[in-house]
Amino acid sequence: MRLTANWQYEIRERWGISMLSQCSPLVENVLWVTRCSKTKKGIYRGTPKDLYVSPINRYFYTYMEQRGLPYGVLSDKYGLHMDDEELEYYDIHPKELTEYDKGMLGELIRKKACGRGFSKLVFYNPSPLMSIPYFEMLYYSGLEIFYTTVLNLEL
Predict the structure, then answer these.
(1) What residues contact 105, with CB distance under 8 A and at least 6 apart?
(2) What pLDDT shows up at residue 23?
(3) Which residues of the chain have a pLDDT value below 70?
(4) What is the spatial distance between Cα 114 and Cα 98, in angstroms, rounded to a whole number?
(5) Architecture category of domain 7-148 in CATH
């Protein structure tokens, strides 16, 4: 699946995901998330900071922690890996996921987010194209989803 120059419109139409802008309202029940990364330390288990160590992930963690915000990482195995959870290492590429898998991961995302009191997610990833598998998972979560390619927003 590809995106065109009208990618913001396509994301809204295909997956019901709204773009987050500086004027978007942010409320208490919003959880910020980013995607997992291929670059992981060779460890058996850990928190997202231990497992997903790409520059994008590290930037995201720093941004969230400086603001005292809880966060999660969208996972190709667990659906949602919360900042305070230690989970086992895995190596699954999003291209390996079937539509059924993405649906199941979406359900896991919803269950974990709602279990923590979150009904809305803000998904950060600088690349809309690399976000497609995660847009699909998020769509299946049934939650209200916002997307941003930048983190220099006033919170």
Answers:
(1) 75, 76, 79, 97, 137, 140
(2) 47
(3) 1, 3-4, 21-28, 39-41, 153-155
(4) 24
(5) 3-Layer(aba) Sandwich (3.40)
